[in-house]
Amino acid sequence: MNLADVARRAGVSSATASRALSDHPHVAVATRERVWQAARELEYVASPDATGLARGTTGRVAVVVPHLARWWFGAALEGLSGALRAAGLDLLLYRLGDAEARQAFFDELPARRRVDAVVLLGFGVDERERERLDRIGVGIVAAGTRVGSHPSVSIDEYAAGRQAMDHLLHLGHRRIGMIAAADPELDLAQPAGRSTAYHAALADAGIEPDPDLTVTVTWSPESGARAMSELLGLADPPTAVYAHSDEIALGALRTLRRAGYRVPEDVSVIGIDDHPLAAITDLSTVAQPAAEQGELAAGTVIAGLAGEPVDPLVTVPTRLVIRGTSGRPPGRRGAS
Questions:
Q1: C-alpha span between 171 and 55 (Å, rounded)
Q2: Averaged in consecutive runs of 10 residues, what is the pLDDT profile of the chain (336 residues)?
């Protein structure tokens, strides 16, 4: 299918169809929608030769994010945008909204061809979305996630979870709760890797897992606070809590302190991320360099546009940061 086919289906000239697919402001809204509908029905893929947008000539990179308010996305975006700007590349930001808006974005993606590359920040895609990405014909780079065989920059989620769990086990904790995160918009490898680490660490320590010690919540401090209340309500509460993120851990800390528990004398808490508030609240955590992941993703884009070889899989190391919320369990204070 070519542009002329789209124009005929929409009942407009090829020039109007081209302007509509480029989101030209002088095309009427109804006409633009008619052209886009025709392009979707015909599964039209824009030709870079026909549109004059051969790879490396637009000077623009599309960055797709599911969230803007959360710390990791903001930090990764800052690192990414700075590196792209230094290379003379402009950034087009696309925030995925609800399920309908997300479907529309991926439906229209192959027809856009207004960028030299696409960067996906911290969310997974299904098979249909991956196929649409493959069809656009430009470089695809993932940061904080992995998308098929496309180059990616991320941490090892399992390794990060093991750093947190092994720290608690080393301190002597045996009854460890986990507040797991569930977010369908994020890469499923995040919660999966962090949960796998929890169970593997317990197994290596010879500890039988107690399903009552795992609470799964959405990715927010409020959810972490509610989950901590649930864990404290158990007949035998945990002496330590491993949270999938610092945001969740901060909510857990609020509940503990309001309930009169001492941290870490009564209950230890550890998260993952090294959120800016982690240092202020003295939260033990596993740090991941979010801005660096964005910078490295930008470097991969720049190298790809220059025709240089790129590393298909960059794993950024994490590090354990021990602060004041993790200590030995009750009854083992002063033990060597």
A1: 54
A2: 80 81 77 85 63 56 86 93 90 83 76 78 84 83 88 95 98 97 63 91 97 93 96 97 97 97 97 96 97 95 89 95 96 52
Q: 157-287 in CATH: which number?
A: 3.40.50.2300
Domain 52-155+289-305, CATH 3.90.650.10 — does that match?
A: no
The backbone torsions φ and ψ at residue 239, rounded to the nearest 5 degrees and listed phi first, read -90, -10
CA–chain centroid gap for 43, Å, is: 28
Q: Tell me what pLDDT residue 48 has.
A: 47
Q: What is the pLDDT of residue 29?
A: 86
List the beta bridge partners of residue 63: 93, 119
Kindly report, as residue ranges, where domains of CATH 3.40.50.2300 are found in the chain: 52-155+289-305, 157-287
* Tokens at 99, concatenated: 């399920």
Burial environment of residue 24 by CB neighbours within 10 A (0 to 12, 13 to 18, 19 or more): exposed
* CA–CA distance, 244 with 26 (Å, rounded to integer): 48
Separation of alpha carbons 318 and 163, rounded Å: 9
Q: How many residues does the chain have?
A: 336
For domain 1-44, give the CATH number.
1.10.260.40
Spatial distance between the Cα atoms of 59 and 103, rounded to a whole number of angstroms: 26
Query: For position 233, what pLDDT does the model report?
Result: 97
